[in-house]
Hints:
By secondary structure, this protein is mainly alpha-helical.
Amino acid sequence: MPYARRSYELPKFLKDADWTEVPDYEDGPRLEWITQRLRERRDHVDDIERVILRLCDQREYMGEPPDTAAQITKVVNEFLVHEGYKVERPAGRPCIVECEPGSASPGSLAPVTLKVTMSQVVHDPTFAKVLQGRLDEARTCTDNGCHVAAIIMLGSLLEGVLLDAIHTRLGQPSSPPQQHTMHDLINLARRHRFIGLDVQKFCHTLRDYRNLVHPHAQVRMGEPPDRDTVDMCWPVVNATLNDLAASAS
């Protein structure tokens, strides 16, 4: 198992999670030892919470890839979600928040399921790789509670796939970008039936939020976006990619 701790490391892990009076490790299977420690404190909610938070803390994985804690958080959330909780990592520091009990895995961020791959939407392999990278970064931002960054990434991705569709299907130039605003790209895509009417409407909403790339736009908005805002943006992107792939076939 990746990132599994050796037996002698377990007491230190619990102490790093701010447990007090941690006994020394004794001979025997490490799983039994750590399970016994957790059972002893199952009525001490704060101690159990500290263990969960330490598991999702990047400080626990010094020297490992920078997304290690995010990967561990995703695994932890697959269990926690059934109890009505999940771990978020705003600014990289984990915290436990409530969520809908028994909901889909936190990795499934939207009720609209993405049914296609980026290569089915964007045929230039180099450009598809760039856009896939932005989609992946949006997921990482979402997992770590970076709501504004996630929305900006999703808006950038949306602009990219629409620009590619207009360029490749209609033969219109993809540069300079000033020739097509995002508003124009959305309406052109709808006019040529690349996307559905419902998708067009919600794309304009995401376009408005994408403008948060400009700090003054966030000031004018007044209330900053939160996780619910991000969760509403994901279905727009998924639906757009699905429509573009279907209309190209």
